[in-house]
Structures are given as C-alpha cells and as structure tokens.
C-alpha cells in the first residue's frame, strides 16, 4: 500500500492552521497578535520603492537630524501595514466567512526608526449583525520594544453570518 493510501485522501480544504470559526463564534475581547518584527533599512528601502514616497525624512540621515529627528523615520503607512490582519491568525480563524475589509482608521503616535522592533495586535471590540452579514470592529495597536504605543486605530471587517 502506498503512503498516500495509508494516510487517506488529502483534502486541501482541511489543511488549516487553526480551526475556522463563524461570525457567531467570535467574542468581544479576543486578541490576535502578530509576530514581533524588527524594522530594517532594507524594509524602508523596499517601502520607499513601492510607495514612491521620496521625502528625505525617510532616507536622509542629515536631513532628518536637521529637522529634529534622531534618525530617518519609518513611513507611517509602513507602520500601519504591521496591523494587516494577515500578519495574525485572524484570517485563518474566520476562514471562509470573510467577505471584505470594510475600513480602517489610525493615529500615528510616535516615531519608528530602523532597528525598532514592533509588536502589533488586533482586539475585537464590537460584533454587529446586519442581515446576512456581521461587522467585526477591532482595535489595532503597534508598540515598540520599549512598550511605547506608536500607532492605534481600528479596522472593520464584514463576514457572512451562518444564522442569518
């Protein structure tokens, strides 16, 4: 008997990182953390290339210092990208009920520089049913290695409801 036959038929839909849950199984207060990441100059260069943001505050050490910064500042949108739900297990948890990423808002609260390690998370703050869909509001935050909150905000996702 072959190894494949001994293991049974493979179903890619059953190859999940975590068990998928429905909108109704989510709970206010649940937290989804991303792995910590240390931002490097290479990250900044890659983001500058993709965003086309050529402001010298992001890459010119002398310009940044002359304007009151200790070093070039990591682009705020790059820090916001650290709150991407896909950086956490959240999209795996919601599995096939995901409809769309509805909206986001954020505040930039502190500078981030190459060498900083960032810790981001999403926390469910509200679950609202709307017909056949459910809206999941999450508080998002990013802290640095010193525990300083450098970004906060919210994301809203729309999911299919099972009991609509």
TrEMBL record:
Residues 28-139 form the MaoC-like domain. Transmembrane segments: none annotated. This is MaoC family dehydratase. InterPro entries: HotDog_dom_sf, MaoC-like_dom, MCH/BMMD. Gene3D superfamilies: Hotdog Thioesterase. It comes from Mycolicibacterium aubagnense. Belongs to the enoyl-CoA hydratase/isomerase family. It comes from the Bacteria.
């Amino acid at each position: 008997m072959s190894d494949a036959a001994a293991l049974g038929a493979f179903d890619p839909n059953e190859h999940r990182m975590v068990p998928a849950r429905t909108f109704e199984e989510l709970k206010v207060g649940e937290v989804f953390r991303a792995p910590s990441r240390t931002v490097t100059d290479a990250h900044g260069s890659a983001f500058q290339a993709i965003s086309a943001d050529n402001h010298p505050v992001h890459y010119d050490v002398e310009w940044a210092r002359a304007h009151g910064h200790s070093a070039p500042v990591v682009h705020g949108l790059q820090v916001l990208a650290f709150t991407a739900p896909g950086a956490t297990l959240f999209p795996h948890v919601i599995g096939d009920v995901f409809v769309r990423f509805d909206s986001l808002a954020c505040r930039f609260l502190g500078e981030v520089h190459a060498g900083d390690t960032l810790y981001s998370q999403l926390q469910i703050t509200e679950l609202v049913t709307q017909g056949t869909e459910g809206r999941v509001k999450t508080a998002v935050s990013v802290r640095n290695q010193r525990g300083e909150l450098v970004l906060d905000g919210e994301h809203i996702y729309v999911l299919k409801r099972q009991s609509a």
